[in-house]
Structure of Calcineurin-like phosphoesterase domain-containing protein:
Amino acid sequence: MKITCRPVLCLSPPHKNHYQSSVVAQMSPVQFQIMSDLHLETPSARPSYQHFKIQPECQYLALLGDIGKVLDYELIAFLEDQLRVFEIVFFVQGNHEAYGTKVKAAVATMLDFQRRMDEYREEGVKMGRFLFLNRMRFDITDSLTVLGCTLFSHINEEQRQSVSLFCSDFSETLEWDIDAHNASHLEDLTWLNAQVEQITRDEPRRKIVVFTHFSPTMLSAANDPKKLEDSNQVRSAFVTDLSDQICWTSSSVRLWAFGHTHYNCDSVEEGTGKRIVANQKGYKRSEVDTFDMAKVVEIETTEL
């Protein structure tokens, strides 16, 4: 059966990483201002962290990876600025965050930042909550859950050589190769499937929002046609087809937003009714023209 998507109009103006929001059950919609691939580390001669200003359109901001490099102090300052104006900042680590260091070191840096922000809040500093979605579940209401992870792609055997040649991740990231990349993909996918399966089985009325950096779909509506042709044989470094995985097929998943491809989309998959969203800016001086800083996605909630 061929799965298709219909376009959507944009709306603008128990695990160790399982958190419960203080928000009570509600009937009102939940809104997320979603963006990724800001690449504020570019251009390298004059990074753009201080020049990119986000105007809040709702209370929750989702930054879905490749925002900058964790080695840049300016990234931390940028995130602190967002916490002064948003109630929650959801953050997914992309592949560029770890450039110049190790992936695990980048994760440790962001976990430490989350801890320090929590401490500031406990001390009475008025700022939003920072949630590092590193295989994290967060119950934002009594009927809506956010699941998030990087979801590294699975690089297939036929493309190992071309991916190694054309993709800079394996030269810019310390102690990182295709085997490590694929192992992380499996860990992320196993965790995500387990979370979705458990919620679908035990809490069938709960809705799920999934935030990842890498793309989970080969649907034409969500991919650049040139990338689907894949003349350079590198597609598996960007996209993994999860159409047969429960994290994709479960009707509990109402929204999946991602980045990494530098191709924007907003459509609803027929069959599951899942909304598929990407809102990516791209590198400085080569921005994606469909990027919308004010893009807000709304999810209806119901009382359990």
Notes: The longest strand covers residues 30-35. Residues 107 and 188 are 14 Å apart (CA to CA). The two ends are 33 Å apart (CA to CA).
